[in-house]
Protein backbone atom coordinates (compact mmCIF):
# COMPACT_ATOMS: atom_id res chain seq x y z
CA UNK A 1 0.00 0.00 0.00
CA UNK A 2 1.26 3.48 -0.82
CA UNK A 3 2.45 5.19 2.36
CA UNK A 4 -0.09 7.73 3.59
CA UNK A 5 0.85 11.37 3.99
CA UNK A 6 0.46 12.65 7.53
CA UNK A 7 -0.33 16.25 8.47
CA UNK A 8 0.86 16.93 12.02
CA UNK A 9 -0.22 19.79 14.29
CA UNK A 10 1.60 20.42 17.56
CA UNK A 11 -0.22 22.09 20.46
CA UNK A 12 0.56 22.94 24.07
CA UNK A 13 -2.01 22.07 26.70
CA UNK A 14 -2.59 22.05 30.43
CA UNK A 15 -4.29 18.64 30.66
CA UNK A 16 -4.33 15.46 28.62
CA UNK A 17 -6.87 13.16 27.08
CA UNK A 18 -6.50 9.83 28.81
CA UNK A 19 -8.85 7.43 27.11
CA UNK A 20 -8.69 5.50 23.88
CA UNK A 21 -12.30 5.29 22.71
CA UNK A 22 -13.73 2.26 20.97
CA UNK A 23 -15.99 3.50 18.23
CA UNK A 24 -19.36 1.83 17.81
CA UNK A 25 -20.00 0.03 14.53
CA UNK A 26 -23.15 -1.08 12.84
CA UNK A 27 -23.77 -4.80 13.05
CA UNK A 28 -22.40 -6.17 9.79
CA UNK A 29 -23.09 -9.40 8.02
CA UNK A 30 -20.56 -11.79 9.53
CA UNK A 31 -21.81 -15.36 9.90
CA UNK A 32 -22.67 -15.97 13.56
CA UNK A 33 -24.79 -18.61 15.22
CA UNK A 34 -28.14 -17.51 16.51
CA UNK A 35 -27.56 -19.19 19.88
CA UNK A 36 -24.38 -17.26 20.70
CA UNK A 37 -25.33 -14.60 23.23
CA UNK A 38 -22.72 -11.95 22.55
CA UNK A 39 -19.78 -11.24 20.24
CA UNK A 40 -17.41 -8.53 19.06
CA UNK A 41 -14.36 -8.15 16.85
CA UNK A 42 -12.11 -5.09 17.05
CA UNK A 43 -8.87 -3.94 15.47
CA UNK A 44 -6.27 -3.87 18.22
CA UNK A 45 -4.35 -0.65 17.54
CA UNK A 46 -7.34 1.65 17.04
CA UNK A 47 -9.91 -0.23 19.11
CA UNK A 48 -12.42 0.28 16.30
CA UNK A 49 -15.33 -2.13 16.23
CA UNK A 50 -15.59 -4.17 13.03
CA UNK A 51 -18.57 -6.30 14.10
CA UNK A 52 -20.64 -6.69 17.24
CA UNK A 53 -23.69 -8.50 18.54
CA UNK A 54 -25.03 -7.63 22.00
CA UNK A 55 -21.45 -6.72 22.91
CA UNK A 56 -22.42 -4.70 26.00
CA UNK A 57 -24.50 -7.47 27.55
CA UNK A 58 -23.17 -8.46 31.00
CA UNK A 59 -22.51 -12.20 31.15
CA UNK A 60 -20.39 -14.61 33.23
CA UNK A 61 -16.91 -14.64 31.65
CA UNK A 62 -15.74 -17.94 33.18
CA UNK A 63 -11.98 -18.37 32.68
CA UNK A 64 -11.76 -15.37 30.35
CA UNK A 65 -11.51 -13.58 33.71
CA UNK A 66 -7.84 -14.61 33.62
CA UNK A 67 -7.16 -12.05 30.87
CA UNK A 68 -7.35 -9.40 33.60
CA UNK A 69 -5.31 -11.60 35.96
CA UNK A 70 -2.58 -11.89 33.32
CA UNK A 71 -2.75 -8.15 32.62
CA UNK A 72 -1.94 -7.29 36.25
CA UNK A 73 0.88 -9.85 36.28
CA UNK A 74 2.42 -8.37 33.12
CA UNK A 75 2.07 -4.84 34.49
CA UNK A 76 3.91 -5.89 37.65
CA UNK A 77 6.72 -7.40 35.57
CA UNK A 78 6.94 -4.29 33.40
CA UNK A 79 7.14 -2.08 36.51
CA UNK A 80 9.91 -4.21 38.02
CA UNK A 81 7.77 -5.43 40.92
CA UNK A 82 7.95 -9.02 39.68
CA UNK A 83 10.47 -11.14 37.74
CA UNK A 84 9.89 -14.20 35.60
CA UNK A 85 12.35 -16.18 37.70
CA UNK A 86 10.74 -15.26 41.05
CA UNK A 87 9.55 -18.26 43.01
CA UNK A 88 5.90 -18.36 44.10
CA UNK A 89 4.95 -20.42 47.15
CA UNK A 90 1.55 -22.12 46.88
CA UNK A 91 -0.90 -21.73 49.78
CA UNK A 92 -3.43 -24.29 50.99
CA UNK A 93 -6.17 -22.08 49.61
CA UNK A 94 -4.63 -21.80 46.14
CA UNK A 95 -4.03 -25.55 46.00
CA UNK A 96 -7.69 -26.19 46.86
CA UNK A 97 -9.08 -24.63 43.66
CA UNK A 98 -11.23 -26.96 41.59
CA UNK A 99 -11.98 -26.94 37.87
CA UNK A 100 -9.11 -26.43 35.43
CA UNK A 101 -5.85 -26.70 37.34
CA UNK A 102 -2.18 -27.63 37.16
CA UNK A 103 -2.43 -29.57 40.43
CA UNK A 104 -0.32 -27.33 42.60
CA UNK A 105 0.39 -28.62 46.08
CA UNK A 106 0.42 -26.55 49.27
CA UNK A 107 3.97 -25.45 50.00
CA UNK A 108 5.16 -26.11 46.44
CA UNK A 109 7.25 -23.44 44.78
CA UNK A 110 7.00 -22.60 41.11
CA UNK A 111 8.48 -19.76 39.04
CA UNK A 112 6.41 -16.88 37.71
CA UNK A 113 7.38 -18.08 34.23
CA UNK A 114 5.82 -21.51 34.83
CA UNK A 115 2.80 -20.04 36.63
CA UNK A 116 2.10 -17.90 33.55
CA UNK A 117 2.26 -21.03 31.41
CA UNK A 118 -0.16 -22.72 33.76
CA UNK A 119 -2.62 -19.82 33.51
CA UNK A 120 -2.28 -19.04 29.80
CA UNK A 121 -2.13 -22.58 28.43
CA UNK A 122 -3.96 -24.83 30.89
CA UNK A 123 -6.24 -22.17 32.44
CA UNK A 124 -5.04 -23.15 35.91
CA UNK A 125 -7.39 -21.81 38.57
CA UNK A 126 -4.86 -22.74 41.23
CA UNK A 127 -2.06 -20.90 39.44
CA UNK A 128 -4.21 -17.76 39.10
CA UNK A 129 -4.90 -17.68 42.84
CA UNK A 130 -1.28 -18.42 43.73
CA UNK A 131 -0.10 -15.50 41.59
CA UNK A 132 -2.78 -13.21 43.07
CA UNK A 133 -1.66 -14.03 46.60
CA UNK A 134 2.00 -13.55 45.67
CA UNK A 135 1.37 -10.09 44.18
CA UNK A 136 -1.27 -8.68 46.51
CA UNK A 137 -1.06 -10.78 49.69
CA UNK A 138 -4.51 -12.27 49.22
CA UNK A 139 -6.93 -13.07 46.43
CA UNK A 140 -9.35 -10.52 47.88
CA UNK A 141 -6.76 -7.73 47.63
CA UNK A 142 -5.88 -8.79 44.07
CA UNK A 143 -9.56 -8.75 43.06
CA UNK A 144 -9.71 -5.17 44.33
CA UNK A 145 -6.82 -4.38 41.97
CA UNK A 146 -8.70 -6.07 39.13
CA UNK A 147 -11.78 -3.93 39.68
CA UNK A 148 -9.67 -0.78 40.01
CA UNK A 149 -8.08 -1.57 36.67
CA UNK A 150 -11.51 -2.18 35.15
CA UNK A 151 -12.58 1.26 36.40
CA UNK A 152 -9.40 2.82 34.98
CA UNK A 153 -10.26 1.30 31.59
CA UNK A 154 -13.83 2.66 31.85
CA UNK A 155 -15.39 -0.80 31.75
CA UNK A 156 -19.04 -0.38 32.67
CA UNK A 157 -20.24 -3.99 32.34
CA UNK A 158 -17.54 -5.67 34.45
CA UNK A 159 -17.39 -6.76 38.08
CA UNK A 160 -14.85 -9.27 39.36
CA UNK A 161 -15.25 -11.37 42.49
CA UNK A 162 -12.34 -13.79 41.95
CA UNK A 163 -9.22 -14.18 39.84
CA UNK A 164 -10.13 -17.27 37.83
CA UNK A 165 -13.80 -17.11 36.81
CA UNK A 166 -15.15 -19.94 38.93
CA UNK A 167 -18.94 -19.39 39.30
CA UNK A 168 -19.93 -16.85 41.95
CA UNK A 169 -22.65 -14.19 42.24
CA UNK A 170 -22.07 -10.76 40.71
CA UNK A 171 -19.02 -11.84 38.71
CA UNK A 172 -19.59 -10.65 35.16
CA UNK A 173 -18.17 -8.90 32.11
CA UNK A 174 -19.13 -8.29 28.47
CA UNK A 175 -17.67 -9.05 25.06
CA UNK A 176 -16.83 -5.35 24.67
CA UNK A 177 -15.07 -5.15 28.04
CA UNK A 178 -13.13 -8.36 27.52
CA UNK A 179 -11.93 -7.02 24.16
CA UNK A 180 -10.66 -3.86 25.86
CA UNK A 181 -8.86 -5.86 28.58
CA UNK A 182 -7.30 -8.03 25.87
CA UNK A 183 -6.27 -4.90 23.96
CA UNK A 184 -4.50 -3.62 27.07
CA UNK A 185 -2.85 -6.98 27.75
CA UNK A 186 -1.45 -7.11 24.22
CA UNK A 187 0.60 -3.98 24.93
CA UNK A 188 2.93 -6.45 26.62
CA UNK A 189 4.17 -8.30 23.55
CA UNK A 190 5.78 -11.11 25.54
CA UNK A 191 2.36 -12.37 26.68
CA UNK A 192 1.85 -14.11 23.34
CA UNK A 193 5.00 -16.15 24.06
CA UNK A 194 2.74 -17.89 26.60
CA UNK A 195 -0.72 -17.73 25.05
CA UNK A 196 0.58 -19.09 21.71
CA UNK A 197 1.98 -22.28 23.26
CA UNK A 198 -0.03 -25.28 22.10
CA UNK A 199 1.65 -27.85 24.35
CA UNK A 200 4.41 -27.85 26.94
CA UNK A 201 5.36 -29.39 30.28
CA UNK A 202 5.62 -28.25 33.87
CA UNK A 203 7.98 -29.90 36.38
CA UNK A 204 9.62 -31.58 33.38
CA UNK A 205 11.86 -34.52 34.22
CA UNK A 206 10.34 -35.08 37.66
CA UNK A 207 7.84 -37.67 38.85
CA UNK A 208 5.26 -34.85 38.95
CA UNK A 209 5.70 -33.83 35.31
CA UNK A 210 2.50 -32.24 33.98
CA UNK A 211 1.50 -32.01 30.32
CA UNK A 212 0.00 -28.70 29.25
CA UNK A 213 -2.31 -28.55 26.22
CA UNK A 214 -3.80 -25.21 25.20
CA UNK A 215 -7.55 -24.97 25.71
CA UNK A 216 -7.60 -22.57 22.72
CA UNK A 217 -7.38 -24.96 19.76
CA UNK A 218 -7.30 -22.09 17.26
CA UNK A 219 -3.68 -21.52 18.28
CA UNK A 220 -2.94 -24.65 16.31
CA UNK A 221 -5.60 -24.57 13.61
CA UNK A 222 -6.00 -20.89 12.58
CA UNK A 223 -2.92 -19.22 11.02
CA UNK A 224 -1.92 -16.14 12.98
CA UNK A 225 -3.82 -16.91 16.20
CA UNK A 226 -1.50 -16.54 19.19
CA UNK A 227 -3.92 -16.09 22.10
CA UNK A 228 -5.69 -15.39 24.28
CA UNK A 229 -8.13 -17.25 26.58
CA UNK A 230 -11.03 -19.67 26.56
CA UNK A 231 -13.79 -19.97 29.14
CA UNK A 232 -16.41 -22.52 30.09
CA UNK A 233 -18.81 -23.16 32.95
CA UNK A 234 -22.33 -24.58 32.87
CA UNK A 235 -23.65 -21.09 33.57
CA UNK A 236 -21.45 -19.22 31.05
CA UNK A 237 -21.42 -21.89 28.32
CA UNK A 238 -18.49 -21.63 25.88
CA UNK A 239 -16.53 -18.42 25.41
CA UNK A 240 -13.30 -17.39 23.74
CA UNK A 241 -11.29 -14.20 23.50
CA UNK A 242 -8.93 -14.74 20.56
CA UNK A 243 -6.34 -12.59 18.86
CA UNK A 244 -4.66 -13.04 15.50
CA UNK A 245 -2.23 -11.08 13.35
CA UNK A 246 -2.07 -11.06 9.55
CA UNK A 247 -0.24 -8.68 7.19
CA UNK A 248 0.59 -6.35 10.08
CA UNK A 249 -3.02 -6.10 11.28
CA UNK A 250 -3.97 -7.52 14.67
CA UNK A 251 -7.58 -8.14 15.64
CA UNK A 252 -9.33 -9.32 18.79
CA UNK A 253 -12.50 -11.42 18.61
CA UNK A 254 -14.71 -12.33 21.57
CA UNK A 255 -17.58 -14.83 21.65
CA UNK A 256 -19.64 -15.45 24.79
CA UNK A 257 -22.37 -17.97 25.47
CA UNK A 258 -21.83 -20.36 22.55
CA UNK A 259 -23.64 -23.69 23.07
CA UNK A 260 -20.64 -25.90 22.21
CA UNK A 261 -16.88 -25.53 21.88
CA UNK A 262 -17.14 -26.45 18.20
CA UNK A 263 -19.61 -23.62 17.52
CA UNK A 264 -17.53 -21.22 19.58
CA UNK A 265 -14.41 -21.95 17.53
CA UNK A 266 -16.33 -21.78 14.25
CA UNK A 267 -17.81 -18.39 15.13
CA UNK A 268 -14.51 -16.88 16.23
CA UNK A 269 -13.00 -18.19 12.98
CA UNK A 270 -15.79 -16.48 11.05
CA UNK A 271 -15.22 -13.19 12.87
CA UNK A 272 -11.48 -13.29 12.19
CA UNK A 273 -12.06 -14.13 8.53
CA UNK A 274 -14.49 -11.26 8.21
CA UNK A 275 -12.04 -8.77 9.72
CA UNK A 276 -9.06 -9.82 7.64
CA UNK A 277 -11.05 -10.06 4.40
CA UNK A 278 -12.68 -6.64 4.73
CA UNK A 279 -10.08 -4.45 6.45
CA UNK A 280 -6.40 -3.54 6.66
CA UNK A 281 -4.37 -1.15 8.81
CA UNK A 282 -1.81 1.54 8.12
CA UNK A 283 0.74 2.07 10.90
CA UNK A 284 1.45 5.75 11.57
CA UNK A 285 3.79 5.43 14.57
CA UNK A 286 5.51 2.57 16.35
CA UNK A 287 5.43 2.15 20.12
CA UNK A 288 8.14 4.37 21.61
CA UNK A 289 8.34 6.90 18.75
CA UNK A 290 9.28 10.41 19.91
CA UNK A 291 6.68 13.01 18.91
CA UNK A 292 7.92 16.06 20.80
CA UNK A 293 9.40 17.42 24.00
CA UNK A 294 7.47 18.70 27.01
CA UNK A 295 8.87 21.44 29.26
CA UNK A 296 9.79 20.31 32.77
CA UNK A 297 9.32 22.59 35.77
CA UNK A 298 12.01 22.41 38.50
CA UNK A 299 13.54 19.24 37.08
CA UNK A 300 17.19 18.28 36.72
CA UNK A 301 16.36 18.29 32.99
CA UNK A 302 14.52 21.15 31.29
CA UNK A 303 12.71 18.98 28.76
CA UNK A 304 11.41 15.42 28.50
CA UNK A 305 10.78 13.41 25.34
CA UNK A 306 7.12 12.56 24.77
CA UNK A 307 6.80 9.12 23.17
CA UNK A 308 3.94 6.94 22.00
CA UNK A 309 2.59 4.55 24.63
CA UNK A 310 1.53 2.05 21.98
CA UNK A 311 1.54 1.51 18.24
CA UNK A 312 -0.71 4.01 16.44
CA UNK A 313 -2.56 2.89 13.32
CA UNK A 314 -5.66 3.69 11.29
CA UNK A 315 -8.19 1.15 10.08
CA UNK A 316 -8.94 1.09 6.36
CA UNK A 317 -11.76 -0.61 4.46
CA UNK A 318 -10.29 -2.62 1.61
CA UNK A 319 -11.16 -1.21 -1.80
CA UNK A 320 -11.82 2.31 -0.52
CA UNK A 321 -9.55 5.25 -1.31
CA UNK A 322 -7.09 6.00 1.49
CA UNK A 323 -7.66 9.35 3.23
CA UNK A 324 -4.99 11.69 4.57
CA UNK A 325 -4.93 11.56 8.39
CA UNK A 326 -4.47 14.71 10.44
CA UNK A 327 -2.38 14.07 13.55
CA UNK A 328 -2.51 16.47 16.50
CA UNK A 329 0.23 16.26 19.14
CA UNK A 330 -0.75 18.08 22.35
CA UNK A 331 2.01 18.46 24.96
CA UNK A 332 1.56 19.53 28.56
CA UNK A 333 2.66 23.15 28.84
CA UNK A 334 4.44 22.55 32.16
CA UNK A 335 5.24 19.15 33.66
CA UNK A 336 6.32 19.36 37.28
CA UNK A 337 9.25 17.22 38.46
CA UNK A 338 9.70 14.57 39.69
CA UNK A 339 8.50 12.62 36.65
CA UNK A 340 8.43 8.84 36.43
CA UNK A 341 9.12 7.05 33.18
CA UNK A 342 5.71 6.33 31.65
CA UNK A 343 3.91 9.31 33.19
CA UNK A 344 1.45 11.00 30.81
CA UNK A 345 2.93 14.23 29.37
CA UNK A 346 0.69 14.77 26.36
CA UNK A 347 -1.75 13.25 23.93
CA UNK A 348 -2.03 12.31 20.28
CA UNK A 349 -5.20 12.52 18.21
CA UNK A 350 -5.73 11.22 14.70
CA UNK A 351 -8.61 12.48 12.57
CA UNK A 352 -9.96 11.40 9.19
CA UNK A 353 -12.33 13.85 7.48
CA UNK A 354 -12.82 15.61 10.82
CA UNK A 355 -13.74 12.46 12.73
CA UNK A 356 -11.47 11.36 15.58
CA UNK A 357 -10.38 7.77 14.98
CA UNK A 358 -7.54 7.53 17.53
CA UNK A 359 -6.96 9.36 20.82
CA UNK A 360 -4.12 8.12 23.00
CA UNK A 361 -1.52 9.20 25.54
CA UNK A 362 2.03 10.35 25.02
CA UNK A 363 4.28 9.36 27.92
CA UNK A 364 7.63 10.35 29.40
CA UNK A 365 10.52 8.46 27.80
CA UNK A 366 12.53 8.51 31.05
CA UNK A 367 12.37 9.63 34.65
CA UNK A 368 13.34 13.16 35.69
CA UNK A 369 14.35 14.01 39.25
CA UNK A 370 13.67 17.30 40.99
CA UNK A 371 16.46 19.80 40.44
CA UNK A 372 18.79 20.52 43.34
CA UNK A 373 18.89 23.91 45.03
CA UNK A 374 22.21 24.58 43.32
CA UNK A 375 20.86 23.75 39.85
CA UNK A 376 17.90 26.08 40.34
CA UNK A 377 20.20 28.82 41.67
CA UNK A 378 22.47 28.57 38.61
CA UNK A 379 19.45 28.72 36.28
CA UNK A 380 18.26 31.88 38.03
CA UNK A 381 21.67 33.49 37.63
CA UNK A 382 21.71 32.50 33.95
CA UNK A 383 18.32 34.12 33.46
CA UNK A 384 19.48 37.39 35.03
CA UNK A 385 22.66 37.28 32.95
CA UNK A 386 20.58 36.94 29.81
CA UNK A 387 21.97 33.54 28.95
What does this structure look like?
By secondary structure, the chain is an alpha+beta fold. 27% of the residues lie in helices and 30% in strands. It has helices at residues 66-78, 92-95, 112-120, 125-136, 139-152, 175-185, 191-195, 218-221, 261-278, 373-385, and strands at residues 7-13, 38-43, 49-53, 87-89, 109-111, 199-202, 210-213, 225-233, 237-246, 249-258, 279-285, 290-297, 303-308, 312-317, 326-332, 335-336, 344-352, 355-364. The protein has a seven-stranded mixed β-sheet, with no helix packed on it. The chain has a five-stranded antiparallel β-sheet with strand order 3-2-10-9-8, with helices on both faces. The longest helix is centred in the last third of the chain and has 18 residues, at 261-278.
Unreliable stretches? 1-6, 14-28
Which class best fits the helix and strand makeup?
Answer: alpha+beta
Count of beta strands:
18
CATH-derived topology of the largest domain: Beta-lactamase
Architecture per CATH nomenclature, i.e. the level-2 architecture of the largest domain: 3-Layer(aba) Sandwich
How is the biggest beta sheet arranged?
Answer: 7 strands, mixed
Per CATH, the class of the largest domain reads Alpha Beta
Number of DSSP helical runs: 10
* Number of domains as seen in the coordinates: 2
Give the proportion of residues in helices: 25-40%
Note the beta-strand portion. 25-35%
> Can you tell me the CATH superfamily of the largest domain?
DD-peptidase/beta-lactamase superfamily
Average pLDDT over all residues: 88
Strand order of the largest sheet: 1-15-17-18-13-12-16
Radius of gyration, in angstroms, nearest whole number: 23 Å
Q: Which overall shape is indicated by the principal axes computed on the Cα atoms?
A: globular
For the termini, the CA-CA separation is 49 Å
Amino acid sequence: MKKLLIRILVLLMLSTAVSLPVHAAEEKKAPLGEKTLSAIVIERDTGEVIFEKNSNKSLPPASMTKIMTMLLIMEAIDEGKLKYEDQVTVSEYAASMGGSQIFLEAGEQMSVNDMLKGIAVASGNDAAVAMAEHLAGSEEAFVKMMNEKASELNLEQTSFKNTNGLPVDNHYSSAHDLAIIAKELLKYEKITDYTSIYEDYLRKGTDKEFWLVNTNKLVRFYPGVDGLKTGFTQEAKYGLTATAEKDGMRVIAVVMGAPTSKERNAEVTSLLDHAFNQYSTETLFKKGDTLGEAKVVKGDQKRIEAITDDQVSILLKKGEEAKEPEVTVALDEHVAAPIEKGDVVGSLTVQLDGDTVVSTDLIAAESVDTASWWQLFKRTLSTFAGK
